[in-house]
Design a protein that fits this description.
Largest sheet: 9 strands, mixed
Number of strands: 13
CATH architecture of the largest domain: 3-Layer(aba) Sandwich
Number of helices: 15
CATH topology of the largest domain: D-Maltodextrin-Binding Protein, domain 2
Order of helices and strands: HEHEHEHEEEHEHHHEHEHEEHHEHHEH
Length: 395
């Protein structure tokens, strides 16, 4: 028994060693096959696209424009990196590009950012002057592509889309809607509680209406939003406009947020109120609003905000990055993805998307607020210091 046991143990050891050898050998083979397969099929270039914004911006990169670009340029893959909503998301991108400033090549090829990013980046000389060299620059008419928050940005950015604050109204109750801030004030006095908005705390549509009020009352839009510089003495001049705004608020319904304004409008609790165009159109498409509901952009205007493509000065693949921006800002892609899919106003002049969408779609987007109206009355939010000061003064 001991002899048999000894042989059995020795054979078991040999078998175990052989088994381990073949397992390791097979794993190595599989890994080698995988490596060679990836080498055969992987794209030659990986374009790193970093985007701020809400989760819809991540979805846009991962599932829409990234795959479309790789289909058009099979040797390039797109990796989308998402940093989060609001100015905080843009700040993370800025800090990354700033950290890579002294490198011959950074890690990021192309980014999508908010307005405030441009002020930070231009001060640090981080961006490539590329926009005038791509084919789709010819479609850009937005003043935000030239100057934003008081900073000259012409050539360094391309707007991808524009989100605009407007006033929505139900023509069943408002057959002759007011067209100006002055007329809105009079209408609210005659129809107490039927104009609703979220003030300055419940959402940015209310903030946009408030900033538009200050522009209207002071006539200083250019100084506050375009040229600057910040002058603390201006704050004292807002006392009367803010007093009048508080009087106006006595005749309105203060809602709990952007969504709450739309919801109150849908239920007929209010008949008019400021909203974001993309949210309005999405609700309309989903059947959440009375289909008769319309929008207008009151004179002398209300703020909106674009998001921009920029390319770091030391981007590792600048030519591919330019091609990426050029594709997404082409009339066809702007029409299909920006207008039809996401209900934004295009970053390019809206007249250029007309041939790429149905008349019905174009009319839905522009039936009330035309490209010409946007160019004239689509305003910017105030420069950072003025913006903070206005909100503090109103509060």
């Amino acid at each position: 028994m001991s002899f048999l046991n000894k042989n059995f143990k020795e054979e078991k050891i040999v078998f175990t060693k052989l088994t381990k050898f073949w397992i390791i050998f097979l794993i190595a083979c599989v890994m080698l096959v995988g490596v060679f397969s990836l080498g055969a099929f992987a794209a030659d270039t990986k374009l790193v696209y970093m985007t701020a914004g809400d989760v819809n911006m991540l979805a846009l990169g991962q599932h829409v424009i990234g795959p479309q670009f790789s289909e058009k340029y099979p040797d390039v893959s797109v990796m989308t990196v998402h940093t989060g909503p609001g100015n905080a998301g843009s700040r993370l991108i800025f800090e990354k590009i700033l950290a890579d400033k002294d490198k011959k090549e950074g890690d990021i090829d192309v980014v999508m950012i908010h307005q405030i990013f441009l002020k930070w980046a231009m001060e640090e000389d981080l961006l490539l002057d590329y926009a005038k060299g791509i084919d789709t620059w010819q479609y850009i008419t937005s003043p935000f592509a030239k100057n934003t928050l008081g900073v000259d940005v012409e050539g360094y950015c391309m707007p991808m889309f524009h989100s605009q604050a407007v006033v929505a109204f139900n023509p069943k109750y408002v057959p002759n809607p007011p067209k100006t801030y002055e007329e809105i004030v009079k209408w609210a006095e005659e129809n107490p509680g039927k104009f609703g908005y979220n003030g300055i705390k419940g959402g940015m549509s209310g903030v946009a209406f408030t900033c538009g009020w200050i522009y209207w009352k002071t006539g200083k839009y250019e100084k506050y939003a375009v040229t600057g510089p910040f002058d603390e003495a201006e704050i004292a001049t807002w006392d009367e406009p803010i007093k009048e705004l508080k009087e106006f608020n006595k005749n309105v319904t203060l809602t709990g947020g952007n969504v709450a304004t739309l919801d109150a409008l849908n239920r007929g609790e209010i008949w008019m109120g400021p909203v974001w165009v993309d949210m309005f159109l999405s609700w309309m498409a989903e059947g959440k609003l009375d289909p008769a509901t319309r929008i207008l952009l009151p004179e002398p205007g209300m703020p909106g905000q674009p998001m921009y493509f920029v390319i770091p000065k030391n981007a590792p693949h600048p030519e591919e990055a330019k091609n990426f921006v050029e594709m997404v800002t082409s009339p066809a892609v702007q029409a299909e993805e920006i207008v039809k899919r996401f209900n934004w106003y295009p970053g390019i002049d809206g007249s250029y998307v007309k041939d790429f969408v149905s008349k019905e779609t174009f009319d839905v987007i522009y039936q009330d607020v035309t490209p010409a109206m946007l160019a004239e009355f689509g305003l910017a939010f105030p420069l950072g210091d003025y913006f903070d000061a206005i909100l503090e003064a109103v509060e």
